Amino acid sequence: MGTSHPLQALRLVPDSVSFVAALLVRFPELASVTFDPRAGTLRASLLVARRLPAQPRARFARRLLDAVAVLRELQGGPAPEGEVRWQLGPNFTRFTLVRSVDDLTVEELRVVAQLARDSFGGDLVAGQENPEEDDREEELRYALEHVRHLRPSRPVVGVREGAEVFVYCAPRPTRRVRERAP
């Protein structure tokens, strides 16, 4: 008798949870990460501790996409499909890179992190760098390769709060049921 679908989902969730946690630990520049296995997408967010005007926001988004395209060209691949979104608050700017995990690389994430550090310096809200985490890059590559094949599980969200990383499974969307008219 085969394994039922709910048991398979439970078995797969820890892999995506570990992947999101590893990203946040390895790249302290990332404020949050959301991995959606069904869509095969990753949303990696950077937080800048000031409200940026429109021109610097657009310039950073363009530089980020250009840097990733150049990296991919140097690696011999086509420019990846990606999108940079931003959200403004009264005293912050959040940039979110939305990418498919199908062709995402650890090197690409490293370029994103370095560009954010270079562009925003002390205004980038980042965790503490841990030199020991550089040794874990091979594990992160393995996890990235593995999560490319996770499609049946729920989205996983990871958030950095100071020196700590919190990871949880996103709740399933609920459908509203309309009441019948009497």
What would you note in describing this structure?
The chain is α+β, with helices and mostly antiparallel strands. It is 38% helix and 23% strand. Strands 3-4-2-1-5-6 form a six-stranded antiparallel beta sheet, covered by helices on one side. It is globular and about 60 Å long.
Strand segment count: 6
Biggest sheet, spatial arrangement of strands: 3-4-2-1-5-6
Beta-strand content estimate: 15-25%
Biggest sheet layout: 6 strands, antiparallel
The percentage helix is: 25-40%
Counting helices, strands and paired strands, the structural category is: alpha+beta
Total of helices: 4
Radius of gyration: 18 Å
- Alpha-carbon distance between the two ends: 47 Å
Shape from CA axes? globular
Question: How are helices and strands ordered from N to C?
Answer: HEEHEEHHEE
Low-confidence residue ranges: 1-14
Fill in the keyword field for this structure.
4 helices; single chain; disordered N terminus; alpha+beta; 6-stranded antiparallel beta sheet; 182 residues
